[in-house]
Amino acid sequence: MGCPKEYSTKGGMGAALLSDPDKIEKILSTLVKGIHKPVTCKIRILPSLEDTLNLVKRIERTGISAIAVHGRNREERPQHPVSCEVIRAIAETLSIPVIANGGSHDHIQQHLDIEDFRQATAASSVMVARAAMWNPSIFLKDGLRPLEEVMQKYIRYAVQYDNHYTNTKYCLCQMLREQLESPQGRLLHAAQSSQEICEAFGLGAFYEETIRELDARRADLLAKTPEAVEEPAEDTSGIIKMAIKFDRRAYPPQITPKMCLLEWCRREKLPQPMYETVQRPIDRMFCSVVTVAEQKYQSTLWDKSKKLAEQTAAIVCLRSQGLPEGRLGEESPSLNKRKREAPNQDPGGLRVQEPALPGEICKKPFVTLGSSEDDLLEGC
């Protein structure tokens, strides 16, 4: 119940729950009675100390095992000071453990500061978010490691464990912070793949070597378990196939192959495209088959996500029909015309954004191999 962001509060979630103590009590009581695991919750403080203490007492009576307290109210953000004295009052009032949160900006700069913040709030323990994102080595008792060393090590882990580049990029941006305008920061900001991130940090050779090793390992696994490597589970005869990958950088920001294919189907008065996507358990890669006018289309190359696989299938269909797919420099009259329409206009009942297709399926694998906006942690 700590997140103050609109995407949570507008749905009555996050910090919005703090204004509905009855619902809080019902949720927590139901959880405590319904499961045999410790139940905890996290809150922000209320505008008045009296209201805050009344709320936490009521929460404690539900039977929860611990409570985390972010020492700011719903309207406050990291630039506002954290209220250590309110967290202390809560800790002195309750008999259950209190976890102090919100000290990253003002109090926690290194490992020793974590204990100082705990003592200042009289809490049982401390929850660290932003300070840990800025430099994860804050948990080392012998002191912070140089940021360059931490980022290099993080990038190596991210590549070795196939972390999605957007998450890697986000975490590195959190580490760089005020250095984002530096030459290296600009290279990171422009990166559109794990390889480009590695090149920005002088790890291009490491990336290439690691990818070769991962590809060899994947090929070895596939060779040893052929039964796990199957095409989409249906009769594949008659499927038109091409070896195609979808490169987002080759398309304008608001145009995709799926959008172009949907437009063409509507213009030709055909049923909308139907996508069936499966995930290969052995390496968690995706393949999609799109059906248009009773003909199926598929790429022979597997993708890292369901969305990419569907875009690739759409490209196969468009190219086999000799149709424009929306690439940069390619003319697509109907889409370009509609992009110029006012946002509130809906000519002919068509929308620029892709609709959710009711026929879309993503079959879940039963096994996988172990080793994805705004700042979600900020102010939560």
UniProtKB/TrEMBL annotation:
Residues 257-322 form the DRBM domain. Transmembrane segments: none annotated. Residues 325-356 are annotated as: Disordered. GO terms for cellular component: cytoplasm. It comes from the Eukaryota. InterPro entries: Aldolase_TIM, dsRBD_dom, DUS-like_FMN-bd, DUS2_DSRM, tRNA-DUS-like. Pfam families: dsrm, Dus. One of its GO terms (molecular function) is tRNA binding. This is tRNA-dihydrouridine(20) synthase [NAD(P)+]-like isoform X3. It comes from Cricetulus griseus (Chinese hamster).
